[in-house]
Amino acid sequence: MAKKSMIEREKKRQRLVEQYAAKRASLKAIVSDQSKSVEERFKASLKLADLPRNSSATRLHNRCQLTGRPHAYYRKLKMSRIALRELGQQGQIPGLVKSSW
Questions:
Q1: Fewest CB atoms within 10 Å of the CB: 33, 39, 44, 87?
Q2: Percent of the chain with pLDDT over 70
Q3: Are the beta carbons of 44 and 23 closer than 8 angstroms?
């Protein structure tokens, strides 16, 4: 189980990304638009820099929804390999069979 503080920090980042997504997208569009004046694009880039760092989507890290583990994360299932194996052994995931030879 991951530390509670790390899980909560990741949740906070997720909330910030959702909160600032529209504003960040509009500013990025202005910055990348070559038809705008240089001053206008520069002002937009300064406003973009003033936004909170954690509102950027690149700062998010995938974590297991059951345990909060950040490594060995399966995107399709949104859980780590360890949680997947435990649920598979309990028969909670249909079609998943523990291999044995």
A1: 39
A2: 100
A3: no
How many residues in total does the chain contain? 101
Q: Fold for 62-94, please state it.
A: 30s Ribosomal Protein S14; Chain N (4.10.830)
pLDDT tens per residue across span 29-61: 999 999 999 999 999 999 999 999 999 999 999
Q: Tell me how far the alpha carbon of residue 71 is from its chain's centroid.
A: 14
**pLDDT at residue 3 greater than cutoff 80:** yes
The Cα–Cα gap between 72 and 8 comes to: 20
Residue 11, pLDDT > 90, answer yes
**What is the number of other CB atoms lying within 10 angstroms of the CB of residue 12?**
11
Instruction: Render 7-19 in DSSP notation, one character per residue.
Output: HHHHHHHHHHHHH
Instruction: Give the residue among 15, 30, 20, 26 at the shortest CA–CA distance from 51.
Output: 20
Residue with tokens 């998010």: 60
Pair 40, 26: CB distance under 8 Å: no
pTM: 0.78
